[in-house]
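Lab notebook page, bench 4
Experiment: in silico fold of construct C2
Operator: M.H.
Input chain length: 199 residues
Purpose: comparison with the prior construct
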Amino acid sequence: MSDRDTQLRAGLSRAGIGPPETDAALDLDAILQRWRRRVMKRELGHRALADLGLDLDMAQLDALMAIWAPANEFGDAPDGETMVGTVASRLGIDPSRASRITADLIRLGLVRRTPSQQDARRAILELTAEGARIVQTVRHYKFLILGNFLKGWTTEEIATFIPLLERFSAWSEAPDDPTGRIATEIAALREKLKRRRAE
């Protein structure tokens, strides 16, 4: 155990968080930080673009995926209409940025605008045949990599891991501690910082 974590462990203990949970939280944080750094670099996406010889950037690939809207990723109804605002929402980006990216994809011949069947004043976005080929190929590439990695796992490991990962992924959206204990600890941390700044 690092001496630098002694105070951290003591503070967690006061909040009712025991050593096993503290150890697990420290391990998870280390794994997530390493993973975050790799994910932020978009290693797999860049590798796919390079290996497949695609002259696109990651933002363009993301927008193509958002227009294709794989159900496993976005969960939208496949027959729903996709507009620039839909792309922005799916990717969590500003609508003006989504507009610029989709305009580039239209110029590249990978996306087209067509009139909405629900409201002719509205333009919807669709992939062209080439845009769809790119998305399908990149998805095939990605799942070859992921599937090949998972081949080394047992059925039981996969059946255990996926629900647990889904459950864990919701931790940041979990409701506040109903007892208020953590809120009290957080307020104490804030006050401690304030006092140190004032010294």
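Observations: The mean pLDDT is 87. The first helix runs from residue 6 to 14.
Next step: discuss at group meeting.
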